[in-house]
Amino acid sequence: MRLRLVVAALALPLCLHAQEPSNRVTEPNPIADTFRGFGYYGGWLIAAFDSIPASRYAYKPTPAQQSIGFIAQHLENANYGLCEVFNGRKHVTTAKDSLADTLKAMWPKDTLVARLRASLIFCRDELARLTDRQLAEELTVRFPGNPERRAPRVRYVILLITDLAEHYAQVASYMRQLGMVPPSALPPRR
Question: Which fold is adopted by the domain 29-184?
């Protein structure tokens, strides 16, 4: 009798698990996983901005180039703009978000880095929800100052990764000009 109770007690959770909706089973998403693998650019950017002294955030190699502070605020805006397209989820904006980019570029380093970090976390979470099937879906998107465009969702994932890579290269070159070593050139930690 006790043996039957033990068997029933062990079998019940297995039977209930079998009744769960099939959406709990995830299919492989090798393409989406590949894009998620480029998260190191965000890590390098945060490490770079963290290591640059606050006194150097106004630095730009030439008057025509962007300052370090400007790059940080630009990345935050671009990250949200691109990653909102992935799944349609919007980040919560405040009155500060509508300030001119030139004003935001002069915010304290801690503010700029914290806001950039939050945008990268938002992007990480939105990328985590994407499947290979969704990457191929056609979207109609209109960014401010640009005409409406119909393109597969993957276009915006590629734009995010290339934007992060481009701006990391920009910040890394600024660091070299300031006599600093960019995070990607540091020896690996043990």
Answer: Four Helix Bundle (Hemerythrin (Met), subunit A) (1.20.120)
